């Protein structure tokens, strides 16, 4: 069954911001393990993930502000190429994840990136979007199949941040996630200061915005389709 993971500090104030980030990539590259590690606040996993996690939330402090980060997992949808537009809706961060021991998973990053950008262009091109190419299983050095320079050149060509990590090393996972969140925060604050985003009328990245769970979004999309999509 699907579920959410959450790590909230009871002494933290209500969040000033909510940032939704999505993890995309082939099945088996370690997306679920990454968000489980993130949700535990830095405790490495002692056993492989059981899967079925839709998203994880965690509160962080950035520049004196409380940020609630939501990391969304495809939860197996990618096996059937069934990732919907609702999965990408409202995202301000994206991790294109591949397995450093699988050259095929790296080769498929181009397709995942095209899908991400297509949904963004159709839906919310005005929102900031920070993207990272993230290689997993960095601890399996002898089985490595993807040359670091090739991955870095791909990231540079597509204007992505780049990092490598292993879910068994929580510090690497946290560094990658926090790097993206810090850049999202910087861009959002810049937009507010430039008057492009009105804090009195919250955008999807600001607090008071309702962020739907994957199951809720699927239900809403089903209702829209049943209604025929007319207005």
Automatic annotation (TrEMBL):
It comes from Emiliania huxleyi (Coccolithophore). GO terms for molecular function: GTP binding; GTPase activity. Pfam families: Ras. PROSITE patterns: RAB (PS51419), RAS (PS51421). PANTHER family: DRAB11-RELATED. Belongs to the small GTPase superfamily. Rab family. This is Uncharacterized protein.
